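Entry for the shared binder. Reason: the reviewer on the internal report wants the predicted structure included alongside the sequence.
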Amino acid sequence: MIEYTKRLRKIDGIKDKKAIYRTYNEKEKIVNELIEILADGDPAMAALGNPRMYSYSSELDLIRAQEAMIDLGFHCLTFVDTVRYEFKRDYYEIISQIFNRDELKLTNVSLSRDAIEERRSTFRKQRPPLIEDPSEEERKTVPIEDEESSNFNSNLSHKIEI
């Protein structure tokens, strides 16, 4: 699936109209293969209650599959408005198939402590914090409660006591 996603990305990145028409058949094959892969599952997993899930040899393989599906879904969601009309339905079908995969169900999404810490450190290196942590000095100067909210709280407690 990862290889198909890479090829699909490469084709979707083409800007030349002639090149786009030349890759039409290849793109159609890739999209159909992806839909077929996403619609299938392992019969052994179906017996365990996960009919739309493949069997993985390790938790890391499951995590890689989850990442690949999310990556593919994000790509399709990003490009669905710009692809030719003939492929719009296929892109939505891929997104729909990904939503229905058992690999992405909450019961199958888990990480070991080591994997979580590794992910966090990688994530922190890649992205800056969304909100700056206030310094100790700034925390002391922020009022916790203003007069108006204090009056409201006292009135509320008075009403509750009656």
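Summary line for the report: The chain has a mean pLDDT of 76.
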